Amino acid sequence: VYLLYFGANVFLYVVVVYYPQLVAGFGVTSTLAVGVYLAVNGTSSALAAALYDRLLARFSRPLLALAAFALWAGGFAVAAVVDAPVAAGAPVVLLGLGTGLVFPATFGWIEALAPPDRQGSLSSYVASAGYLGQFVSPLAFGTVIPFAGVRGVFGVAAAAAAVMTGGALLAT
Q1: What is the model's pLDDT at position 165?
Q2: What pLDDT, in 10s, does the model give residues 137-169?
Q3: C-alpha dihedral over 84, 151, 81, 23, to 10 degrees?
Q4: What angle do CA 44, 134, 34 make, to 5 degrees?
């Protein structure tokens, strides 16, 4: 559960840190326009999180996590090749939907797995794992830029998410 939340925050911060650089590559440099991409990502995440209970009534947590990995793999893959401002909206929607599935899932898993008297402390560890992921993300993916540029960051993230999708598929 902690690793899942760590990874979700690593991927979230790939978007937060590197998407502005990606869209700048095809002429989007206005802070307002860049903010719209990030707001669409956040809105997509909020929508998926708001629908999470309904989705959980129909699908298992592992299956929803698998869907999140697949959304991340697809979103990062599209981001790696997108070259127009309008088309750049699709990846942030996919990536946000994935994040919105994982964030409530991790806290739900803690509630389901932890004894009631330990849920608070074990939930705080989830938050710690998330902050660690946010810290590690630019350090890990920043190493890609000298070799493959900002598009390479999204390609590597797509590959990582695809591996996670495969692992989740084997586990479900």
Answers
A1: 86
A2: 999 999 999 999 999 999 999 999 999 888 778
A3: -10
A4: 50
SS (H, E, C) the chain: CHHHHHHHHHHHHHHHHHHHHHHHCCCCCCHHHHHHHHHHHHHHHHHHHHCHHHHHHHCCHHHHHHHHHHHHHHHHHHHHHCCCCCCCHHHHHHHHHHHHHHHHHHHHHHHHHCCHHHHHHHHHHHHHHHHHHHHHHHHHHHCCHHHHHHHHHHHHHHHHHHHHHHHHHHHC
Instruction: State whether the Cα torsion 86-96-82-37 is positive or negative.
Output: positive
Structure confidence by residue, pLDDT tens digits, 97-112: 999 999 999 888 888 8
57 — pLDDT class (breaks 50, 70, 90): very high
Q: Answer left, alpha or beta for residue 47, where phi above 0 means left and psi between -120 and 50 means alpha.
A: alpha
Residue 65 CB partners (closer than 8 Å, separation 6+): 4, 101, 102, 105, 168
The amino acid present at 11, given as its one-letter code, is F
